[in-house]
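stuck on whats below:

***
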Amino acid sequence: MKKGGPPRGKAPSQLIDARIKELGDWRGKMLGRLRALIKEADPEAVEEWKWGIPVWSHDGLICTGEVYRSVVKTTFAKGASLKDPSRLFNSSLEGNTRRAIDFREGEKINEKALKALIRAAVAQNKSR
């Protein structure tokens, strides 16, 4: 699947399904697991397809799901203003707005801490 606009007639969830299937390796599994955790943390999260990547929103952007050769990156739009006591953020640390988590092959997800970050991002969106 090429980056860019979604094919006409395809729902964002279908595009995300296709992206996961297309990857066919650990990155697809990781993206699928991250997607499931986002939905568990916020069942009302809306799946979107923007900028050629999966995006999750609830009263504003929560995070994206970017896939690269050696990482699956979850970028939180307003991550710099979120408390991260478990120190999940390990990428895009120099910015004033965004923060990201790079997941590498074989890494275990701290699911409890990630869900807490997702919920905090939603709460922040709702407060604005």
The radius of gyration is 14 Å.
